[in-house]
Write a structure and sequence with these properties.
Blueprint (H helix, E strand, L loop, with lengths): L1 H18 L1 H16 L1 H9 L4 H32 L1 H20 L4 H9 L4 H45 L4 H37 L5 H11 L6 H17 L1 H27 L7 H15 L1 H5 L1 H13 L5 H7 L14
Length: about 350
């Protein structure tokens, strides 16, 4: 009965979080950045520097990383924007050839529908919505950096406050275990995503795809979204390869993406991560869908760290250990002990 009540409470909590996502998303991003930089902050603190200096260094590192990625995206996007008229012409020519192919096979109504469809409308709408969203993203980034700074300033007091709040260190150990697991996962994921981005950017450059820097950065960013992120990252460069160089080029680009993602996702990542995430593939997929619905794209990116933290905390409660066991990979988790009769 307690498990059922807990599930109902979780569903109600997710509904509240969905309604308050404009507030929750910056807070979660700030907590994620603070967690990721906690080891660096601890090393700096051991040198006797005050918390304000530690927070300033962490924020500076975040700004350098975000600024560097932003500059790369700006340069690549500017190069891509100059070639958009050329892509539009080739896309319309491809549309006309497809309509002629349909008409040559006595599918006149289908050919008419293809000709009447405005293939440029989705691209125009996407470009306009992206420009409108830039201001909102910058505003959210400002709030995230401010909250990260305050979390860093208060970090050294949190453990003592939590021990006092929960009247003992046992619950705090669960929180700290969850943080350590999330930190290990993020370190491995960032490293593998960076390798993915570098290799795929070079692969696009080898095949002559325009703006390879953009596709490398996109592969790095979308690799954080489980299951579908790598698929989404492959679509634009394959489409541009098809428009500019033909079917053979598109197939060559696609083969590189498939091989990289097969090797990284199925061989390298499981070996390097080991039991770090300790979540079954089905749970990862469900977590991405649930957190993506609740928090939007940021929820899909943070789905695995959030679910990992939830599983570790569930393991600490004897009545909820079975849920944590179901969420795990099966062979890599220990079944909960049977309650004494």
């Amino acid at each position: 009965m307690r498990i059922l009540v807990s599930l109902v409470c979780v569903c109600a909590l997710l509904g509240v979080v969905h309604v308050a996502s404009d507030i929750v998303v910056p807070l979660l991003l700030a907590l994620t950045l603070a967690t990721a930089f906690q080891p660096i902050s601890q090393r700096i603190a051991r040198r006797g520097l005050p918390p304000a200096v530690t927070a300033a260094i962490s924020i500076l590192l975040v700004l350098i990383i975000v600024g560097g990625v932003g500059v790369m995206i700006y340069v690549a996007a500017s190069d891509l924007a100059t070639k958009m008229p050329e892509y539009a012409t080739k896309l319309q020519a491809l549309q006309e050839r497809f309509a002629e192919w349909l008409q040559g096979r006595s599918m006149d109504s289908a050919a008419t529908s293809v000709r009447s469809y405005d293939v440029l409308a989705p691209l125009t709408g996407f470009a306009q919505s992206s420009l409108i969203s830039v201001g909102g993203y910058l505003q959210m980034l400002f709030f995230v950096l401010v909250m990260t700074a305050f979390i860093q300033l208060e970090a050294r007091h949190y453990r003592r406050k939590l021990i006092k709040t929960f009247e003992g260190p046992a619950p705090v150990r669960g929180v700290m275990d969850a943080l350590r697991d999330v930190q290990r996962y993020m370190l491995v994921k960032v490293s593998l995503s960076a390798a993915n981005g570098v290799f795929l950017g070079l692969w696009c450059w080898i095949w002559g795809v325009d703006s390879p820097l953009m596709w490398g950065v996109l592969a790095f960013a979308l690799n954080f979204i489980p299951v579908i992120g790598s698929v989404l990252a492959a679509i634009p460069p394959i489409a541009i390869g098809l428009l500019t160089h033909g079917v053979g080029n598109a197939i060559g680009v696609a083969v590189g993406y498939v091989l990289v993602n097969l090797v990284v996702d199925n061989i390298i990542e499981p070996r390097v991560m080991g039991k770090t995430s300790n979540l079954s593939p089905l749970v990862v997929l469900l977590a991405m869908l649930i957190w993506g619905f609740v928090l939007g794209p940021v929820g899909a990116i943070l789905a695995v760290p959030l679910t990992m933290a939830l599983r570790v905390m569930l393991e600490r409660d004897p009545d909820l250990q079975r849920i944590a066991f179901v969420m795990g990979e099966g062979s890599s988790v220990t079944p909960p002990a049977e309650a004494p009769s």
